[in-house]
Hints:
The structure holds 2 protein chains of 2 kinds.
Chain A: H1 5-19, H2 21-29, H3 40-49, H4 53-57, H5 61-100, H6 102-105, H7 110-154, E1 168-175, E2 178-185
Chain B: H1 2-23, E1 42-49, E2 54-60, E3 67-76, E4 85-88, E5 95-99, E6 111-120, E7 128-132, E8 139-140
Amino acid sequence: MRIPKAFTVSSLAIFLLLSSGAFVSAQEEESFIRERVLSKRDAFLMSAVYPGLGQMTNGQRVKGVTFFLAETISLVYGINAHENYNTKNKIYERDIAAFNKIGPNGSGTYEEALVMYNDLKSQSDDLDNLHSIRNAALIAGGAVYLYNIFDALVFSPGQTTADNSNRVRVQSAVIDHTPGILLSKSF
Amino acid sequence: MDSVKKIFISLTLLTLVVFAYSCSKDHESPTFSQFDVAKKPTNVVASYTKATNTFTVTWDMQDPTDVIDYYVTVADSADFESINKTFPSGGTAKTCTITANFIPSKETTAVRYFAVSAIYSNETLKTFIGPQSDVADTALFVR
């Protein structure tokens, strides 16, 4: 079988061209990069686990850290206020039960009742404050959580973003005048 | 995307439950109204009778309903041990006589302070000692 001369010459030229570093460099300049970027769905799931995770994984570090800190601070304040509230509420319930028994139990005095009443009012005010702090912290935490999910669904860069400063890169390269594949990750 | 929607709806419902829970007020406020019926006696007057060496204390009570007795408190400026002695007057009469531990032949002056409280007893207050009256005028003795 006779191979046409033109086909042979063309194949040889293409082989030489593929083996050359100049061709690889040209590919680099054209950003022949395949990135590993989270999809909106993955970003949503990460953000659903804890606010900020989806954004941080997608490279939106400042936004992610902001969500993370806001949620953490809200939770710490909320849980702390909740625990304080529960502890003080137990003491308050014990004291108010004793206060309500002053009359029916007998031998109680008006002055004793007045002192206990003033103390209970002070305790009730403390409980109201803790209740408000807990409300505000939990609502803020919920709001941060919801906005974080909304952000992950709507403002997530998705797969089309060119911001690849901290992505895993797979790209062609020339190493010791030999073409190859370079896997890189910047931190 | 259905699973995503389900998760989002679940989290929204969870947030609403947390919101409703945190807005509910789960402690009762204290109220003093059960003791409002207790009133303090007024116009407390104390006098000393040298012949019998006794004090006579009198007072008024505007609404004696449910009052079963009175407590009389005596503070003695000359006798540290007997400061703020409190005892029932012995009935619903608005007066009582108290023997003084004052010895007219040896002492020159003494000051006593008196206050009276009503003792209530009804369905909500059992042997409850009401508010103390204003302190009576001091009784001053001069030999």
